Amino acid sequence: MNKIFKIKPEHKKYLRPVVGGIILLLGIVFMVVPFIPLGYIFLFGGLFLLSSEIPIFKKWLSKAKSKDKKDRIEKVEDKVDKKEENWSKKIVMSEEEKNNSEKY
Question: How far apart (Å, rounded) are the C-alpha atoms in residues 60 and 20?
Answer without folding.
Answer: 16
